[in-house]
Amino acid sequence: MPICRIETNEYECGLCRHRWTNRVNGKDGEIPVKCAKCKRSTWNRPRITAKENGLRRRVSYLPTLYESCIKDGYQWPYKVTQDFLNLDPRPTKQELNCVIRASDIDLNSQTRYQEKYKSGAPKSMLLNEAQKHINAMQQIIDYRKKHK
Hints:
Blueprint lengths: L9 E3 L6 E3 L1 E2 L2 E2 L21 H21 L7 H8 L7 H8 L12 H6 L4 H24 L2
Antiparallel strand pairs: 1-2, 3-4
Helix pairs in contact: 1-2, 1-3, 1-5, 2-5, 3-5
């Protein structure tokens, strides 16, 4: 009796760690849309770490920070922030840090942003700092589109 070697793709969910093969009529099937166990459509993406989640939260908070500090009808371009956070693949920790550190304002979890910058900070300085964050996000978006 001859022994035949069969090679097939094995998939692993990055969230629940379930492993399975996707076979159709004895042959490899297409890449699955969902995990066979937990049914998540993001099975092939790694989990978001606590550090990455915190960085993403700070980036998503930038519009609130600058709109509340500058006032006078300043409108943050929300589309840039949404496009940046929804990049595929997700922005790396280095890219998130690059956006956060684009300005001279210290944006860490211990800073009381609005109390510190509502009073005393010139509007032109805040507009300049906001533009630095926007430019950093836009540069990363453009680079990703160019090198896709």
